[in-house]
Amino acid sequence: MLIKQVLNNNVVLVYDELKNREYILTGKGLGFQKKKGMDVDVDKVEKKFISDDTSVKKRLIALAEEIDPDIFEATNEIIGKIEKFLGEDLYKYIYLSLTDHIAFAIKRFNEGIIVRNTFLYEIKRVYKREFEAGKLAVDYLNSKFSIDMPEDEAGFIAIHIINSYYQGNSEKYQEDIKVLKILKDVLNIIRYYYKIEYKEDDLDYDRLVTHVRFFAKRVLLNKRLDDNNDDLLELVKNKYDEAYRCVEKINEYILNNYFYEIGNDEKLYLTLHIDRVTKKIL
């Protein structure tokens, strides 16, 4: 493969004579001291993009022109670390979105602008491995660029990792974001109702988070549990009346925002989960 254009030290546009096709290749030092017409060092290639994907080509060229080559190198390193940590390959187009994100995150930090991640708490609970991978990335960036970005940034990088699982399917990604919003709002309703702070290391709290996460998916898909425990709900309602009143607050929120009324079995399970979590705190 011959180099057609050196975009920066780590990104080159090449032509494959055998396949009669252009590619954009990325890799550490791939374009260093290279010129048009020279052979590419295939051992340094880390990512390969088909050049006739016009939108990808334009975006990569724009990024190469605007962003410090060190950011490209850092992104390559980070993706490698994340893939090793997770034990799986990420969708290759994360290279574009993550490079862009990291460049602006560092720029904002250097300008004294700290952006808080409104879903940080939920990401840490629901996507623990992705959040830990995000922390690895932030630690690397802080060390390499002598900065001190907060863990909010680990949450943002975790979102990029989650998005890569869907391989460009934005609808599934948006659904996950909506699930996080419902989870966040329901947990806040419970927290404000009881005026408590959760014990994050509590097993019952983990069970509550898991249940609410799947409940949120049922809300978005307009699916319901079968209501087969009406008599049991009456018993639970009387025994755990405070938790049940909290569930009614949740039902009001869900109905007003998602036009979905919580069924009796759902109320039963939510009441039991809420009681278990809150009685350990109060």
Could you name the key traits of this structure?
single chain, 282 residues, alpha+beta, Transcription Regulation, Sacy, Chain A, PTS-regulatory domain, PRD, 3 domains, 4-stranded antiparallel beta sheet, 11 helices, 4 strands, 62% helix
Care to give the gist of this entry?
The chain is α+β, with helices and mostly antiparallel strands and 282 residues long. Helix content is 62%, strand content 8%.
What does this structure look like?
- This protein is α+β, with helices and mostly antiparallel strands and 282 residues long.
- A 4-stranded antiparallel β-sheet has the order 1-2-3-4.
- The chain folds into 3 domains: 2-53, Transcription Regulation, Sacy, Chain A (Roll); 69-165, PRD domain (PTS-regulatory domain, PRD, Orthogonal Bundle), CATH 1.10.1790.10; 185-279, PTS-regulatory domain, PRD (Orthogonal Bundle), CATH 1.10.1790.10.
- The chain has helices at residues 54-66, 69-86, 94-110, 120-126, 128-145, 152-165, 170-194, 203-221, 230-239, 241-258, 264-279, and strands at residues 2-8, 11-16, 21-26, 47-50.
- It is 62% helix and 8% strand.
- What is the 3D form? elongated
Using the CA coordinates, give the radius of gyration.
24 Å
Please mark out the parts with pLDDT under 50 across 5 or more consecutive residues, or reply none.
none
How would you classify the helix and strand content by structural class? alpha+beta
Order of strands across the main sheet: 1-2-3-4
CATH topology of the largest domain: PTS-regulatory domain, PRD
The largest sheet, given as strand count, sense and whether it forms a barrel, is: 4 strands, antiparallel
